[in-house]
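Page 37, top half.
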Amino acid sequence: MTIARAAAVAAGAVIASGCSLFGGGDSTAEPPAELTEIEQTLEITRMWSTRVGRGTEGLRLGLRPSTDGVNVYAGAYDGRVAAIDANTGREVWSTDTDAPLSAGPGYGNGVLVFGTSAGELLALEAESGVERWRVPVGSEVLAPPAVGSNIVVLRSTDGRLRGFSVANGREQWTVEQSQPPLTVRGDTKPEIAGQTVVAGFDNGRIGAYRIASGDPIWEVQIGFPAGRTELDRLVDIGGDLQIVGSDVYAVGYQGRAVSVDLTSGFVLWQQEMSSLAGLGVDPNRVFITNDVSYVVALARNTGAQQWTQEALRLRDLTAPVRYMNTVVVGDFEGYLHFMDVDDGRFVARVRASSAPIPAAPIIVGRNLVVQAEDGRVAAFSVVEEEVEEEEG
């Protein structure tokens, strides 16, 4: 049994399984914060915008763009996949997979990999969109697959982490975790670092495994079930985690934010934190969207809190991403909010779509690229001020 991420946002709101804070549900629920005018000190321009397939609003899928640095790749629930020139927004190719795409694409070594709601894993050639293989996996996929040099790593909704051959889709290994009776809809994308893959699970654990065999290296519990009801005992790792150098950063719902040594699994620091969206990392800070859509900045080396932006409360924010000198999140009305990296104050706001933005934007060169639930894919960039040369 799963519940929508929006329905799991607590802190003063009345929560019911299957309801949403953004229309419908209990009328006594606390509404999301209204946007107020900000001082726009950074000029953002839309570089291009296009649409890939039909919309999927409300399905809470794991569809998000990926890139090889030249093209942006995106897919839609209706099965359409497109490659888009990252600079111009021109469509390079498109194809119809005739599959209900639900997660991805993962990109690596010239291959795009999607998961489907029908329980399939699907690989395409990134150069042309031609299908390489398609295999059944027995469960819906809501986390983008991770693609290594010889293996695709998949996290599916049945609690399993599996490795598949890039060449032909044959299953190589399986890791199984206990599955609680109630989980949040959405899964953590596995992250690959060298010969190791790290993943989060619905039972509040994160683990590192050998990518060639699936053998465990370490596992760490970052969420601890507590309370009388199954809703109280939710401890999902449902949001993005990050690997930077030899450190793993993760955060769980009703759990902790942690920094873990990639090699040993030793917990370097921890902070009480609850998040469903996940986190982003830069060289100095860890940025977390917590379960009530506060954006929190922690020192990367100690976990000490540096600033908190509370003005977007309950707006169902994405995980944060560092972009130039800003931190960016998307929200349920299609807005992108740009905050100063040092203090969290707002410096810009633009609207990418009228539909929700389900996943953090990606950075491609100087562009910030985002996909909304209506199939809209758009790129934005900071406007550079022209500097006049002094005469003489």
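Page 37, bottom half:
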Amino acid sequence: MRRLKLILCATILSACSTNSGVVPTGSGTYIISKAEWGVNPTGSSVKVDALKEANDYCTRMHKEIEIVRATQKDMVPFKSEAQAEVEFHCR
């Protein structure tokens, strides 16, 4: 039982995420791709994080974000992570 508790704690503490950062795709369009493992991440929570990052990027340039496309995919336990992708312009 103790070993199971240790494994559970390690899993909770080891929530991982990947982030492409802001990547220019040409013609003033950018994309951010994020993925997150963990206890219960959702595609929408990962998408919100990506949208915040995109907005911060445009704000630093004194511009407003214009979303071109935003997608999300929920986590499937032991199979795939929660994912999101945001394509945007800064206007």
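Margin note: The first strand starts at residue 17 and ends at 19.
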